[in-house]
Amino acid sequence: MFMSQEDTNTYNDQASEFSVKLKAIHKASDLNPSDYGLFFASAGHATLFDYPTAKSLIKIAEDVWARGGIVSAVCHGPAILPHIIDHKTGKSIINGKTVTGFTDEGEQQLDLMDAIKKFGLVPISEGAAKAGATYKTPDNPFDDFTITDGRLVTGTNPASAHSTAVKALAAFNAL
Question: What average pLDDT is seen over the chain?
Answer without folding.
Answer: 96
